[in-house]
Amino acid sequence: xxxxxxxxxxxxxxxxxxxxxxxxxxxxxxxxxxxx
Length: 36
Hints:
Layout: H1 2-35
């Protein structure tokens, strides 16, 4: 089913984006704590 496949692809992209954002958040946190 085409719609289902699109949903899966979207889910994967969403998960990947979430990981990238949390990684960036982690790095930002480290940076801020390093400055203070």
